[in-house]
Design goal:
Shape of chain B: globular
Radius of gyration of chain A: 23 Å
Largest interface: A-B, 14 and 18 residues
Shape of chain A: elongated
Largest sheet of chain A: 2 strands, antiparallel
Mean pLDDT of chain B: 92
Largest sheet of chain B: 8 strands, mixed
Strand content of chain B: 15-25%
Strand order of the largest sheet of chain B: 3-4-2-5-1-6-7-8
CATH superfamily of chain B: P-loop containing nucleotide triphosphate hydrolases
Number of domains of chain B: 1
Strand order of the largest sheet of chain A: 1-4
Low-confidence stretches of chain A: none
Helix content of chain B: 40-55%
Number of helices of chain B: 13
Number of domains of chain A: 2
Oligomer: heterodimer
Structural class of chain A: alpha+beta
CATH class of chain B: Alpha Beta
Low-confidence stretches of chain B: 265-271
Distance between the termini of chain B: 56 Å
CATH architecture of chain B: 3-Layer(aba) Sandwich
Number of strands of chain B: 8
Number of strands of chain A: 4
Mean pLDDT of chain A: 79
Structural class of chain B: alpha/beta
Chain lengths: 92, 271
């Protein structure tokens, strides 16, 4: 009864909505837990793209997925050795 | 043309895979299709009891795969429908008694003879699951409107894609309209939105399913029950018919009363 009243006055979210919200969050994490193989592929591709513009310290390149409370971020730490001279043509 | 091989899977156990397989298979057979049900849950066979065929088993799937008997000798014909057959799982063998390649071969063999081959997958994502999906062209995912079941369904969708089974169809099982109305259960839209796959159908929670399973007769034979109507609709959609989704809006007290009042009286009242 108390629960009903609380819901009536909009104090508590319905359990169905809570379920959906919890599910949404848990899936953000589940879906983000990509395989190490996929991350390695991404690392190689990133390296290729960035190398067009600057010289990257290859062994130092780190790519990770970081989980915050309700978001997932792709965090890449890319140490740069040298920037390519401005105006020089981008290598394709 | 070979028949269609459909795997019925879910990830989580206890959401109604076997009941769904039994009812869709029976429904397809009633609709005139030649159907073979395959129980891929080796070591934990159940489809035979849900179908009421447990006393007729002589050979099983593993014996067929190992070449100890002919496929046709292992198939059990249903007592009420000549279009409907079951290939039972082995009960006393380990799950790895069969390989995905062997399952694939078996499904091809069955598809040559049947319009539909329905493979009942075991729960989980291990060997048994990989066997079950190995020979399938299409996948049906069963879930209930619960956080754990939908989460596992999401995982399964990803794994099916990894095995090149794309665009699976969803069945939401055991929906309780009165709870959805109260806001105490996720509704169909919530689940579809989260999983982002096509809805094949919704089956309401129905005591008739338990009664039918007790008797070993799939509920779809029961003309009066709501779940049977839901299963028949799904069967129609599998066959390519355009059938709108059922509306499970629970009746209010007033509607219930009106239904109970003799027809003539209520009609006069309506005028």
């Amino acid at each position: 009864m108390l629960e009903f009243l609380a819901r009536l006055f909009g104090r508590e979210e319905s359990s169905g909505k809570q379920a959906k919200e919890r599910l949404r969050l848990v899936l953000v994490h589940d879906r983000a837990s990509v395989s190490p193989h996929l991350l390695e592929m991404l690392r190689v591709d990133l390296l290729e793209v960035i190398s067009k513009y600057m010289e990257v310290d290859e062994p130092g390149l780190e790519v990770n997925l970081e989980h915050e409370k309700d978001t997932v971020a792709l965090v890449a730490n890319i140490p740069i050795r040298r920037l390519k001279r401005q105006g020089s043509k981008v290598a394709h | 043309m070979p028949g269609r091989v459909l795997v019925i899977t879910s990830g989580k156990g206890g959401v109604g895979k076997t009941t769904t397989t039994a009812n869709l298979g029976t429904g397809l057979a009633i609709a005139g299709q030649k159907v073979c049900l395959v129980d891929a849950d080796i070591g934990l066979r159940n489809l035979d009891v849900v179908m009421g065929l447990e006393n007729r088993i002589v050979y099983d799937l593993v014996e067929v795969v190992e070449g100890n008997c002919k496929l046709r000798n292992a198939l059990i014909k249903h007592k009420r429908n000549d279009n409907l057959f079951l290939l039972p799982a082995a009960q006393t063998r380990e799950k790895d008694a069969v390989s995905p390649e062997q399952m694939k071969g078996l499904c091809e063999q069955l598809a040559a003879e049947f319009d539909f081959v329905l493979v009942d997958s075991p729960a989980g994502i291990e060997h048994g699951f990989r066997n079950a999906i190995a020979g399938a062209d299409e996948a049906i995912i069963v879930t209930t409107p619960e956080v754990s079941a939908v989460r596992d369904a999401d995982r399964i969708i990803g794994m099916l894609e990894a095995h090149e089974l794309f665009s699976p169809k969803l069945i939401i099982n055991r929906l309780r309209p009165e709870m959805v109305k109260r806001g105490d259960m996720m509704d169909v839209q919530d689940v579809i939105e989260i999983l982002a796959i096509d809805l094949l159908g919704v089956v309401p929670d129905d005591q008739a399913v338990i009664v039918a399973t007790n008797r070993g007769e799939p509920v779809v034979f029961d003309e009066k029950s709501l779940s049977a109507a839901a299963y028949r609709n799904i069967v129609g959609r599998i066959l390519g018919e355009d059938i709108p989704q059922m509306d499970f809006e629970p009746e209010s007290m007033l509607e219930k009363l009106r239904r109970l009042v003799p027809l003539r009286f209520s009609r006069r009242k309506a005028n």
